[in-house]
Amino acid sequence: MALISYTGIQSLDGFIADAQGNFDWSTPDLDVHRFVNDLERPVSIHLYGRRLYDVMAAWEEIGTPNDPSASQANADPVSEAMVDYGEIWRAAEKIVFSTTLNEPRTTRTRIERAFDPDAIRSLAAKNAGEISLGGARLAAQALEAGLVDELRLFVSPVVVGDGIRFLPAGLRLDLELTDERRFGNGVVFLRYKIRR
After folding, report:
1. Residue 185: which CATH number?
2. What is the CA radius of gyration of the chain?
3. For site-directed labelling of 47, which of 40, 89, 141, 176 has its Cα 20 to 30 A away?
4. Model pLDDT, residue 21
5. Which domain holds residue 31?
6. Contacts of 68 (CB under 8 A, 6+ apart)
């Protein structure tokens, strides 16, 4: 049975984007990027909301022959980490939950019109890899349905004041800290198992 995780980079005050929708403060440095790559390697399926899918779709080209940075990968460790992540991302299946997207822009991607918790439970039961959940609205639905096994947070050393919250208001979860790591740029990784 696949483990379902919700991963995100958030500000210290709990936002994944500020009130204007900006998240440039969350760009990972090389050490964080490599750590994220290793964290994502076991993921066989990504579940996305429409907005996050629009952001993540850029990885369809990063590191391919169409990407100018791919030729720099041997000389530049950051480009190398980006190329590596692109390969990891393209290898996984993507399911996008959207009522407005007609066709996917990326390979190994399908569109679902509605979020069905029972269908996600069935998907997890049939898969051995990890399932990664992305997008605050989609995650809120999955958390409320009791589908998420782990929270994986990268807490950035910034306070943005308002915006899109990583966790929905009013949610109550009991958690067990299972891993933590501090990076040189001030980012802290926290991994929590959700207690049932």
Report:
1. 3.40.430.10
2. 16
3. 176
4. 93
5. 4-195
6. none
